[in-house]
Amino acid sequence: MKKSRGRTGRKRRRKHVQSFVDGVNCSSKLEYIKLKKWLKDRGFEDSSLRPAQFWDTGRGLMTTKALQAGDLIISLPEKCLLTTGTVLRSCLGEYITKWKPPVSPLIALCTFLIAEKHAGEKSLWKPYLDVLPKTYTCPVYLEHDVVSLLPEPLRKKAEEQRTMVHELYVSSEPFFSSLQPLFAENTGTIFNYSALKWAWCTINTRTIYMKHSQRECFSLEPDVYALAPYLDLLNHSPNVQVKTAFNEQTRSYEIRTNSQCKKYEEVFICYGPHDNQRLLLEYGFVAMNNPHSSVYVSSDTLLKYFPPLDKQRNAKISILKDHDFLENLTFGWDGPSWRLLTALKLLSLGADEFTCWRRTLLGDVISARNEQQTLNIAAKICNFLIEETQHVLLQLKRNKENLKKHLALVEALRLEDLKILQKSAEILCNLNMATT
C-alpha cells in the first residue's frame, strides 16, 4: 500500500511541476490581486482561470480544472465592461454630446483611455489600466526599417494603417483642445500622437464585439466596441472553437468552449479564421502552423511573368480588375488558390483563345497548353517568393539589437510563409509531373 501511495504522490508532484513548465502562475502579482478585487467589487465571481506567463504565447490565462466542450470559461458582468456608455457617464460626456461634427465611438473610447491613464491614482479604472500593455507590436508601432521587411501586400496595408492612425490624430486635435477646462496641463501634451497610438492599439487589439444602439452624439461609424478586463488576457489559437455572446438574462458577456482543455493548460479563444498577415496587422502577433495562413501574390509580381508584347495584355488586366481577380491571390498549405490559378489562366490565354475568357473565369479547361503554362508560371512565382523570403530571413540574421522584438515578429511571419511556399512548390511539382 505504501508503494502505491508513494507512486501517486510522485505522479501528483510531476503534474504540478508540469503545470509550471507550460506556464508560470502570476496570480500572486500585486497588479493581478488588485485587478481581481476590483472585478469582484463589480460583481465578477472568481472563475477557474489564473493569469500566467507562457513561454510561447507570453501572458495568458491557465485553467485550474479540466474543461469540457460546452463549459462556461468566463462570465464578465456588464459593470466590468468599458463601452461608449461608460465614456458618456464620465466627465467627458457633456463635451462629447456638445461637439460638432460628432466624434466617432472609437475616438470617444480613445479619449477616455488617455484621460484615465493621465488621471493615474485618481482613475476608477486604474487596476485595469495597470495590466494593459505599455506598448504594442501592430504595424503602427513598428519602425520604418521593420515595416520595409514585411511581404509587399502586408507592407502596403501596414503603411495604410500608419497613415490612417496619424490622420485620425490630426482630425481629432480640435476636439482634444475643447477638453482643456477638464485639465490643469495643456491638452496638447496629454493627448499627443503617442498617447492616441497607444489608445487606438489597445482598442483595436483587445475589444470584444458588442453592438450598441446608435446615439446621436456619435458619428455614423458602428458602435461595436467593449473592453473586457481579465477576459482580454485570453490568447488566440486558430485550432479552438468558442461561443461568445452577451447574456441578456445575467447581463454578462459569456464565453463557452467547444474544445477540451486539460488542467493547468493555457485556455485559448479564437478571434476568427484569420491568416497571419491579418493577425499581425490587427493584433501584432503571428500564430505558428496557422491552418488559415496564406502567402499573398501582389498584382505587380503576377504581371511580371507576362510579356508586354502580348497585344491583349491590357484587355486581360482590365477583365481581371473588373471581376476582382487582381486581389487576394494566394498560396496556401494546399498549394496555389483557385483565384490565383484562374488569374494566371486568363493571362496565359493565347491570341486564338482570348474569346474564351468568360469560360476561364468559370473554371473551364481551355487547352492543355493553357493548363501547362498556368502551372509553369505558378511554379516560377512560387520560387521567386521563396527566394525573396529566404533573402529577408538572411537580412534578419544581421538584425539590430534595439529592434530585436519587432524583427522576431517579422521572422516568425516569414518562416511560416516559407513553409507554405515550400509546400506549394512541392504540390506544383507533382501537378506538373502529372500533366507532362
> Main sheet: which strands, in order across?
1-2-3
The CATH level-2 architecture of the domain at 82-227 is identified as Alpha-Beta Complex
CATH superfamily of the domain at 82-227: set domain protein methyltransferase, domain 1
How far the N terminus sits from the C terminus, by CA atoms, comes to: 71 Å
Largest sheet, in brief, is: 3 strands, antiparallel
Using the coordinates above, name the CATH class of the domain at 82-227.
Answer: Alpha Beta
Low-confidence stretches: 1-21
Mean pLDDT, nearest integer?
90
Which range does the strand content fall in? 5-15%
List its traits.
436 residues; set domain protein methyltransferase, domain 1; globular; 3-stranded antiparallel sheet; mainly alpha; disordered N terminus; set domain protein methyltransferase, domain 2
